[in-house]
Amino acid sequence: MATSWDPALYLDFDDHRSRPFADLLARVGATAPRHVVDAGCGPGHLTQVLAARWPDARVTAFDSSPAMVAAARERGVDAMQQDVSDWRPEGDVVVCNAVLQWVPGHRALLRRWLEALPDAGWLAVQVPGNFAAPSHVLAREVADRFDVDLRDAATVAEPAQYAEDLAGAAALDVWETTYLQRLTGEDPVLHWISGTALRPVRDALSDAAYRDYVELLAPRLREAYPANADGSTWFPFRRIFLVARR
Questions:
Q1: Which of 37, 136, 193, 230 has its CA 20 to 30 A from that of 181?
Q2: pLDDT tens-digit profile of 112-151?
Q3: pTM, whole model, 2 decimals?
Q4: Minimal CA–CA distance to 242: which of 90, 45, 107, 62?
Q5: Pairwise CA distance, residues 110 & 107, whole Å
């Protein structure tokens, strides 16, 4: 079953979610690409950043979620519905931000994408690397009680594994960053993961069962991520980046 998405909920943390995209894009050295592709564009707010970076390029985008594609089109983005697993690579710059953690076997997919790029083409990818963090471990533990499987630490590779996979690239930059996000509001970590990691749980459970799930998970997250004296909560979020030039 495909995961459903809520563009508005996803954008509740737009600033936090956009920063890794900016850090990723800063390492892409393309100067005058003809065609830039946003693979897994979400609501399209970051596709517009690509258009601003390369105003003379054709910028296209796609996402597997009909809701996300609709939201992107409302922003004027040339978006289509397409699954990254079935996509035939095109363009001389391909950007894939916070998508491939949803795709089993994506390491082989990355190799195919790089091989399909034209000479001097660029591939830029970012995935979350926090599947062993308390937020995700606790979410999995509670999901097990409801017979719902969530992705584990093997969902993404370590940076060195990605570097080895793409070692034949003409230029390769692989790194990781842990952002210390300052979250506010009631149960902010729960709210954060509700827009992404918990979407499969929401899809699998009835409204009543999901409420029961949240009631069990929320206090565990509050204990793992206690609020500061000012009411805010620090949330470490690890991200893995790779930029390769064919």
A1: 37
A2: 999 999 999 999 999 999 999 999 999 999 999 999 999 8
A3: 0.90
A4: 107
A5: 5
Q: How many CA atoms lie within 13 A of 19 on its CB side?
A: 12
Q: Could you tell me whether strands 122-128 and 171-183 are parallel, antiparallel, or unpaired per DSSP bridges?
A: unpaired
Domain ranges of the chain: 7-131+151-180+235-245
- Specify the CATH number for 7-131+151-180+235-245; select among 3.40.50.150, 1.10.443.10, 1.25.40.10, 3.40.630.30: 3.40.50.150
Supply 141's token pair: 């533990």
Amino acid at site 119: D
| CA pseudo-torsion sign 208, 212, 218, 224 | negative
Tell me whether residue 237 is exposed, middle or buried, using C-beta atoms within 10 angstroms of its C-beta: 0 to 12, 13 to 18, 19 or more: buried
H-helix or E-strand spanning residue 103 = none
Q: Quote the CA–CA distance of 234 and 29 in Å, as a whole number.
A: 33
Does residue 84 contact residue 109 with C-beta atoms inside 8 Å? yes
